[in-house]
Amino acid sequence: VFVVPVLPPASAYEKGKFGEKEALAQSQAAIGRSVGDYVLRDETNREVRLSRYRGRPLVVSFVYTSCADACPVITRTLVDAAEEAQDTLGEDAFSVVTVGFDVASDTPERMRMFAGQQGADLSNWRFLSGDLLSVAGLADDLGFAFYRSAKGFDHLFQTTIIDGDGRVYRQVYGAGFETPLLVEPLKELVFGTTAPFSSLEDLVKKVRLFCTIYDPATDRYRFDYSIFIQLVIGTVIILFMIGFVVRNFVRLRRRRSDETAA
Question: Does the pLDDT at position 186 exceed 60?
Answer without folding.
Answer: yes
